[in-house]
User: Fold this.
Amino acid sequence: MTLRRSLLGLLAITSLTTPVMAAPFQKATIRRIVDGKEVFIDKTPARINQTAGDGQELSTGQSRAELLFDHRALGFLGTNSLIRLGEECFRLDQGQVLINGPQNSCLGTKVLGIRGTTYVLNALNEGGYRLSVLSGAATISEEGAIESDPSEQDILEQYPRLNPVIGFGSSAWGSNASGNTLGQAAGLILGDASFFLPLSQSEGSQLFYNYSTASSNFDSAWGASTEFGYKWFDPNNRSISSLLVGYDGWETPGCFHSQLAIGGQWQKGRWQLGATGGIPMDGCNNNLGFAMGQIGVPIIDLGQQSILLSLSPYVMNGIGNTYGGGRIGLNIPVNENINLSAYGQYDELLDTVIGGQISYRFGTNGGFIIDPNMQTQTPSTPVPWQTSEFNSGRPVNVALGGEISVLGQTSSTPKGLLAQQTESQSAIIISAGEEAIFDSDGKLVSRSAMSQKRFEQLILDNMAGQNLIPESHLISLVYQQLYGLPNQELLAVLGSDWLIAARRPYPRLRAANNLIVPENKLPKKEKPAEAEAEAEAEAEAEAEAAPIILTYVCQSQTAATASSYFKGSSTGGDRSEAVRFQTTSKDSATCSGRGAGTGGDEATEPVFL
Assistant:
């Protein structure tokens, strides 16, 4: 803890190696009203996008308001709060306000100036102020000592942004749908590649992206897919929603399959509720359209992510029938880069299917996130977070030199920084994780390190239900350095869950992972009427062409008696004893030499049966 606080203090103080140059106030615009409509300008009800200027009052009743100061700073004005706007700064007369960005505040005859800082300022009932710094550092000095910096960037352009992400991995699935046992299941082992490209990012909570994948077994099976999706963060209930539309195509023996894919997902507290579907766009006789729901249940927390159990009922339609089934899956995020997943499913058409995937994903441009609020660190900089994850254009000077007290500890600091502090010894610096009390004239009464509970309460009281601010991500990292990993509620309020979910597309069937109806499950084709008629004609022709077999017996030419038929012996017999002969023509039938009668001497003639 001592080392963490020393490093945090060093990081905060290095941000002040250049003079504090917060911009003087000009105007404040109401961007959002939370919990009702009790927001006022000069005691008159105000509306969203209305602007207050120099000399006016902004106040709230039971509502809270998000304010934009000259596009250089954001503020969250709490309930029952009042600020008076001035040319150089604003004054908090009642309640509390959170400020992110270079916006000055007047404390009696002193000026609170910041640069790259988020702080909470409370007006105390007994007079005076409480200043709590959540990130960066705040400087309190005499009025007029704070210079303006016309080069300050638009605060709305300072949100963390997602970098493109490249992924590689391998997937496999097998099915006994062809009548085999599971031990003999037919399936595929595929090599997978993916590319995630953020196309448009708005104020850190809205994302339009493209996601493309390719799979192949490096033989005859391959597939590819692409989709466009839109994701957004809702601060009211801290949920994350997404919609997608895409195309999938994959090669199978005898036919190329393609489908239109649509889907959506809603996530809150890492619980997920989603649906996706595929509409066939090919003429393959073994394709399937499907609709699948998904309920994701977090079962074990692994840092900022969770092992997720998914339950997915589905319906398939194809080959003239509809089939229902279900899938159960498990997703395990080993770390930020490596992910494992496995699933099993069953239905009457495809029988039992099992599959899984391992993937490795990494962000380009130094990491998954680029945060302009983080200072660039060099490999030798003794700061916990390094350039592998965060990049910005701001330099930081860290070198060996004297020592400066930070949260009751000491840490090395550059000689140049010591010289600057000597020149402005009247300034008071309050660093991230510190809290200070000032009297009504702005004089320091006390200062102390914030407890973990106090830091958490400040975040929840001021940021819950509000839009993300540019330094939300940085505040989460500061919290981790001071107290360890935030709980799930804090991670949701600070947008950490959003930054992870935003770069992970919805899990669905894509490309060569799609299953098709096996040949042995296809119904036999019925012959068309014309084909049946032709078959009957052919049968008749064959019947006509075949020779006719005639059967006959030899009967006595005289009166019929009990021995009037030739029975193959010296005496004749009755008809039941007669010998049968066959011929293909009546003309060729003969009874010559075949006698009948009691002595076998009576002449006979053919009689056809």
About this structure: The mean pLDDT is 81.
